[in-house]
Amino acid sequence: MTPIPEIQSLLKEEMTIFETKFKDAVKSQVPLLDRIMHYIIRRKGKQVRPMFVFLSAKMFEPVNDSTYRAAALVELLHTATLVHDDVVDEAYKRRGFFSINALWKNKIAVLVGDYLLSKGLLLSLENNDFEILKILSRAVKQMSEGELLQIEKSRTLNLNEDIYFEIIKNKTASLLASSCSAGTWSVTQNTAYAEQMRLFGECAGIAFQIKDDLFDYGNADVGKPTGNDIKEKKLTLPLIHTLNKVNSTRKKELIYILKNKHKNKSDIRFVLDEVKAAGGLDYASEKMNLYRDQALAILNQCPQNEYTQGLIQLVKFTTERKY
Question: Is the pTM of this model over 0.70?
Answer without folding.
Answer: yes
